Glutamate synthase subunit beta (Streptomyces mooreae), 502 residues
Amino acid sequence: MTDPRGFLKFPRRPVPPRPVEERLNDWDEVYAGQALLPLVSEQADRCMDCGIPFCHSGCPLGNLIPEWNAYAARGDWRAAADRLHATNNFPEFTGRLCPAPCEAACVLALNADPVTIKNVEEAIADQIWERGYAAPHPPERLSGKSVAVIGSGPAGLAAAQQLTRIGHTVVVYERADRVGGLLRYGIPAFKMAKRHLDRRIEQMRAEGTKFRTGVDVGSDLDAAELRRRHDAVVIAVGATEQRELPVPGRELHGIHQAMDYLPLANRVVEGDYAAPPVTAEGRHVVIVGGGDTGSDCLGTALRQGAASVVQLDINPEPGDARPDREPWPVYPKVYRISHAHEEARGREGTDPRVFSSATLHFEGTAAGQVCALCLTEVEPTARRPRPETERVIPAELVLLALGFSGPERDSGLIRQLGLTLDQRGNFARDGDFAAEAVRPAGRTAPTGPDGVFVAGDAGRGQSLVVWAIAEGRATAAAADRYLTGSTALPAPIGPRDRPLVA
């Protein structure tokens, strides 16, 4: 176990990011080159090894956090790696991208600062690769069954790796030119360098997983035909139906969806373009949306040399303390500063966000180019515009980061596999992740396409990377049970499970 008095001896000390002025001049990770050790080992010693570790409940993967904290505190990286990999296929992804609901659920958070679990996880993940603890694990024998996985985001990759390791022949179909889904083109390189993704893909190839890029199932390849080729199909296409902003002036040039803008910047880093076709350089930028995607747009625009950046958030500004309506151990809505917000504050001296605000309309030039945005303050609960609060701000590039409303509606998957949508706009599925189809006349329950499963955001709706990996692992267990009659694969969550709420 860790030092029984560690949480009394050591204050919380997160790993410091690189200086703002340094990281704004490159696309390297925020923590690139920062020494995680020995600080992380000291911080791991703050873990109290609780009798009931609520950090497990905060994490849908059920990560064995007190166990790998103890090993990290002692520098036993092999044991720490084994315990981390026991529940998480890709800890280097979650250690960099997850907002760490486990820290909000840490028992220390009741009356003190929680353990820096996220930093510890990232340090262990880095040690896994530095010390050669990520050797491929090909199956001892093949089952004779084949599975198609549609989509190569974190849910699809987790499902594919689990099914490959248990002995099934797995082919992953990805419509983009590279594997990774939003991990590849949606997440900026300064949040996660693509080398972490590339080496996992190589590990999976060495284990036997096959990848087919540039194949849009439902368009380039008939999904029903794909189902006939394989013994089972896992749909992990994500929730990529982007929400729109139906206000006057939306048709003006210079207004883009975030997921049309971010991939172009990532392709520059990948070497596909010398310069992005859409750039913030020298422009007044407005980001509509206050979530993580908006923050990613902010950090990208700053690195491209925007003249100014404003981020609009319709929600009221949260307080610094956990509100009574969101008690421990739930993940609270409190005032948080992302690394991109820190970068904007460092340059401008103020928070780039404008809370409790909404867009009324856009204004354009005679040539049809957006040049300004009219916004208004809104009431905190009803979100109705407040009279006489309208104002106009310059906007030469507008990025819409309003989230997603489920999988794409015009996908051929729906028609070709006979899928249906649930009330939230996601692919409907039963209690074992199996896809459900339209209820036939006279039937009391829907019937789904046999052997088709739905994993990740396509069935859950937009969520966190840690939930996507948990979904992929659980769906793999369901598919394996369908193929063989039983399974030894873990299923950390069910399709109806949701994050902790008060």
About this structure: The chain has 19 helices and 13 strands. The chain has a mean pLDDT of 95.
